Amino acid sequence: MTRELKRVSIVVFLMFLTLFVSSTVIQFFQADNLASDPRNARTLYASYDVMRGPILVAGQPVAESVPTNDQFKYQRTYPQGPLYSAVTGYYTLGQGSSQIEQSMNDYLSGTSDSQFLDYLNRIITGQNPQGASVELTLDPVVQQAAYDALGSYRGAVVAIEPSTGRILAMVSKPDYDPNTLAVHDTQQVIDTYNALLADPGDPLINKSINDLNPPGSTFKIVTTSAAVQNAGLTIDHAVPNLARLPLPGSDNTVSNAGGGTCGGGSTVTIQTAFVLSCNIPMAEVGIEIGQNPIADMAKSFGFGTELHIPMQVSTSVYPSGLDDAQLALSAFGQGSDVATPLQIAMLSSAVANGGKLMTPNLVDEIRAPDLSVLQSFQAKELSTPLNSVTASTLSQLMVEAVDSGAATNARIDGVSVAGKTGTAENATGAPYTLWFTGFAPADNPRVAVAVVVEDGGGLGQSGSGNQVAAPIAKRVLEAVLSK
Amino acid sequence: MTSTGPMTAAPDAPAPTPGRGIRRIRVPQKLRNLELFLLVFVCLINAFAVVLVQFGALGYADFTVFTLGAGLAVLVIGMHVALRFVATNADPFILPIAALLNGIGIAMIYRIDIAENLSGWESTAVRQVVWSAVAIALALVVIIVIRNHRVLQRYTYVAMLVAAILLLLPMLPVIGQEINGARVWIHVGQFSFQPGEVAKIALAVFFAGYLVSRRDSLSMVGTKFLGMRFPRARDLGPILVLWALSMSIIIFQRDLGTALLYFGLFVVMIYVSTGRASWVVLGVGLFLAGAVIAGQVLVYVNDRFTNWLDALNSTVYDAQGGSYQLVQGLFGLANGGLIGTGLGEGRPDITPLAQSDYIIASLGEELGLAGMFAILALYLLFISRGFRISFAGQDDFGRLLGVGLSFTVALQCFIVIGGVTRVIPLTGLTAPFMAAGGSSLVANWIIVALLLRLSDTVRNQPRLVI
Question: Are the C-beta atoms of A46 and A74 separated by less than 8 Å?
C-alpha cells in the first residue's frame, strides 16, 4: 500500500505544481496583456485611483481632479468649461479622451517614464499616486479675447508669440463643455458624446489644428515669398493687368475679387497684387516662376510637415504634379491647397520673426507633484523660410495691406499692424471660408494671429475676410498689445 | 497485502543505520504546546488580516476585529483545549493550518462585504463566523464521540446509505433548491445547505470499509492486456456504479465538480487498496468518455468547455453563461500581479461569486502571486499531514480513510483553483476552509476532526516512531 501511497502523493504534488505554474502564468507572464484588455474594468478603476494632474493656464487650473465619494475617488472638472475645450479636450470614464488630456496622458496620470521612481515610491509609502501638472503657454487674457471675438461664428483663432512659438490663444467654435463628458455615468457620457458627434458644427474637432480649408489669399504670402526669395523677382516685377485670365488648357477663367483689373494700368506689380489681394497677377506670377519655388517655400513654412504641439496637427497641403491651370489656382490659395489655421498663423509668425519659424507649442512646463520640474519648454526653430531681407519686404507688404489695401479692418490706432486677408472659395455655390492672418506691432512683433470663419460667417458668398475675420483678429491683437 | 507498519511496508526503504541513534519519542505535551504556539501565531495573522482589510478598504480600523477575528480564535483554542484531553497525540499542524485558512477566508469575505455594503446579519463574514462555530462544534463532537476510528468500519454500509440520502436530498421537492443552474442545495427555513459536501465524507468512509474487505477479489484475478492485469467483468460492478452515480450528478444535478470529486476519490482509493494501475486506466477512461459524451449532449457542459478553451473570445465573453466570470477572475489575478494590491485595495468584488467559488481569485488579486503560493503551500502542507497519517498508519482501514479524506481536499483544491486559473474547465466547487458557505465548512472541519483522530490513534500505537 505504501508504494501506491507514494505514487498518489506524487500525483497530488504534480497537481499542485500545475496550480503553482498556472497562477504564475496568469499573475506574472500574462498580467500585462490582461491588464491592457479593453474589457478590464480594473485598469480603468486603477487610473482613477491616481489623482490626475491638473492642466494649468497662468497657474490656474483649467482641468483638475477633485476628490469624490464615489468608487472612482476623483472627479475631473473643467472650471471654465467651453473656453478651453479646444485645448484641454475631455477625459471620460473609459470612453477615451482628447487634446491635451490625451496627448499628455502619461504625465497627467503619473505613468510617464520620468515619474516611474516617484510612482514606485508612493506605492511603497502607501500614498496615492499622483499625476504631474501641465502648465500651458496660453495667456488667459488673449484666450478670453479670442473666444469672445469669434462669438458664435463657426471657426477658429490661433495666436502665437513669433519669437518663441508659444501659443497664446487657441479657440475653436462651436465649443462644448468637457464637464458633460467627465461625469461618471457611462451611459450619460455615451449619449452626450453621440449628440456632440452628430452636431453639424463638429464641436469635438479642434478646428485650429484639425480642420483643413483652402487658404485663399493668405497663401499669397507664400507665393510672394517664393517669387522674391526663390525666383529672384522683386516686388516691382510687373505682369499684364487683365480682368479675366483664361486657365491654360481649360474653359475656366480666373477673375479678381472685384471683378475688374487690379488697379489701373496695363501692367501690375507683385506689390500691388499683394496689397490689393488680386488673383490674376498672382496666378500669372505663379505660372511664370513655376511650381517648384512655391512648393519649396510652402514646405519651408510648414506645409507637409507633421507637427505635434503636443496634439497632432493635421498636415497642410500644397499639392504637387500640377499643370499650369492648377498651378495658377494654387498660387492664390485655391485648387487643392488646404491649410489649418495654425499653419496660416505660422506664415505670419515666420514673417514677424525675421524669417525664422519657431516650432509652435502649447506646453510650457511639466511639474511633478512635489513641484520639481520634469520638463520645461525650450523655444526651437522649426525652419527658416525667409532671409531677413525677404521677411522685412513681406512685412512691409502686409503693413501696407492693412493700412491701405484689402485688410483695412485690422487697423489699430497708433500701432502698425501687418496682415493679409483671405476669402476662399469652396465648392460651387458653397459659402466662402473667411481668413485673416497678421501680426503686431509690425516693427517689434509680439503676436501673430490667424482667424478662420467657416460657412461664410453666415453671409454665404457675400462676406469677405476683411469684413468678418479681420475685426476678430484685431481684438486679439489688441488684447496682447494692451497688456 | 496485510496490515503492516511503515518499516515493513516499504521493503526497498533503507534499514535504519544503527549509528544514527534512536529518534526521540515526542512527548504528547510537546505536540500540544507546539499546536498552541502555532494557533496563537495564526490568530494574530487572522486578526492582522481583518485590520489590514479595514485600513485598505475603509481607511480606519474599529472593533470588528474582535467579532470576526476573536470569534474564530476562541473556537479554535477551544478545540485545542479539547484535544489536550481527548486526542493528546494528534498531529499539531492540522488544526493551525485549518484555522489559518478559515481566518484568511473570513477576512476576504469581510472585504467583499465592505465593497457590497453588507453589515450586521446581512454580512456574509458574520454568517461565516457563525458557520465556523457550528462546524468546529461538530468537529469537536466527532472527535469526542469517535474515540477510535476503527469504529467507523462497522458502519461501512450505513455510511453508504447516508451518502445516498444526502445526495438525493436536493432532488426532493420542497426542500430541494436550484441555485445558479446546479441542483445541489437543500433549503430549510433561512438556511441553505449543500449536502453533497458532507456526502463526500460518508463516501470516503464507505469506500475505505468496502475496499478493505473486498480488495482481494478486486486485485488478485483478472486478464492481462497491454502488460496490465485488468479486472474481471463481474468485478467491474463497483466502478460502474460509481461512474453511473457521477454521470447522474452531471445530468440531474448539473454539477460537474462534485461528480469529478467523487469519482476521483473512488479511483484513487481503489488504486491504493488494490495496487492495480488498471483501475486508474479504467477510471480515467470511463470518466473522460463520460465527459466527452456529456460535452456533446449537455449544453451546459459544452458551454463550460467553450468558456475554458476560448475564454477571451468576445462572443464567448458576452454570451449568457459565457466566460465573463472566468475572465473577470483572470483580470483580478492579473491586477494582483506578484505582490498583490494589498488587502482592501483591489477590486475583487467585480468578479461574480467573489466570496464563494471565486474567493481564490479575490485572494490572488489582493495578496498577489506571493499570497497565492502561500495559500497553495498551506493546502499542500495540510494534505501532506493527511498522507503522513496514511503512511504511518497500522490498519488498512485507517490508512485508506486517511488518504481518501486528504485526497478529497487535494482534488477539491485542484478542481476549484485549476478552474479559476484555466487549467481545467470551471466547475462550481468551494475552496476548502476559505470559501463562504456553511456546508463546505462543516464538511472540511469534520475532515479535520477525523484526521486528528486518525493521527492520534497512529501515534498511540506501541511502535510509535514517526
Answer: no
For B194, the 3-state DSSP assignment is coil
A-B contacts (CB, under 8 Å)? 129
Query: 3-class secondary structure for B374-422?
Result: HHHHHHHHHHHHHHHHHHHCCCHHHHHHHHHHHHHHHHHHHHHHHHHCC
Least confident of B124-128, B363-367, B397-401, B426-430: B426-430
Q: How far apart are CA A42 and CA A48, in angstroms?
A: 10
Q: What is the average per-residue pLDDT within B180-203?
A: 79
Strand order of the β-sheet with A55-57 is A74-77, A60-67, A55-57, A133-136, A363-367, A373-376
Q: How confident is the model at residue A281 (pLDDT cuts 50, 70, 90)?
A: very high
Distance, in Å, from the CA atom of B230 to the CA atom of B237, rounded to the nearest integer, reads 14
Angle between helices B71-86 and B94-115 (to 10 degrees): 160
**By the 8 A CB rule, do A477 and A411 touch?**
no
Q: Whole-angstrom Cα distance, residue B110 to residue B125?
A: 5
With beta carbons less than 8 A apart as the criterion, state whether B70 and B46 touch.
no
C-alpha cell at A470: 479681420
Contact criterion met (CB below 8 Å) for A214 and A337: yes
Is the Cβ of B284 closer than 8 Å to some Cβ of chain A?
A: no
d(CA B246, CA A142): 79
Q: Which of A172, A217, A300, A395 is catalytic?
A: A217
Q: Provide the greatest CA pair distance for chain B.
A: 70
**What backbone phi and psi angles, to 5 degrees, belong to A395?**
-60, -45
Q: Is the pTM of this model over 0.90?
A: no
**Residue B163 in grid coordinates:** 451518502
- d(CA A408, CA A424) in angstroms, rounded, equals 18
Which residue out of B369, B379, B397, B408 would a mutagenesis test of the A interface target, given it has the greatest number of A Cβ atoms within 10 Å? B369
With H, G, I as helix, E, B as strand and everything else as coil, classify residue A69: coil
Q: In whole angstroms, what is the distance from residue B276 CA to residue B233 CA?
A: 15
Task: Record the cell numbers describing residue A364, joined without a space.
Answer: 510650457
| DSSP single-letter state for residue A81 | G
Q: Does the pLDDT of residue A13 top 90, yes or no? A: yes
Which residues in chain A have Cβ-Cβ distances shorter than 8 Å to B372? 23, 27
Q: Which residue type does A233 have?
A: L
Rounded to whole angstroms, how far apart are CA atoms A246 and A252? 6
Q: Is A300 a catalytic residue?
A: no
Other CB atoms within a 10 A radius of the CB of residue B297 amount to 10
Q: How far apart are CA A221 and CA B83, in angstroms?
A: 98
The residue extents of the domains of chain A are 210-481
In this complex, is the C-beta atom of B393 within 8 Å of any C-beta atom belonging to chain A? no
CB B300 within 8 Å of CB A28: no
CB B437 within 8 A of CB B356: yes
Rounded Cα distance, A1 and B201, in Å: 21
- The span from the CA of A127 to the CA of B364, in Å, is 22
What local confidence, expressed as pLDDT, does residue A124 receive? 65
Question: B274 to chain A nearest CA, in Å?
Answer: 8
- Are A157 and A150 contacting, i.e. CB atoms less than 8 angstroms apart? yes
Whether A22 contacts chain B with CB within 8 A: yes
Q: Indicate the residue type of A430.
A: A
pLDDT for position A93: 77
CA B302 from centroid of its chain's CA atoms: 26
Q: Are A435 and A424 in contact (CB under 8 A)?
A: yes
3-state secondary structure of A155: strand
- Of the CA atoms within 13 Å of residue B7, those in its CB half-sphere come to 6
Cα separation, A337 vs A316, whole angstroms: 8
The domain A210-481 having CATH identifier 3.40.710.10: the answer here is yes
**What is residue B217's three-state secondary structure?**
helix
Opening angle at CA B202, ends B200 and B208, nearest 5:
100
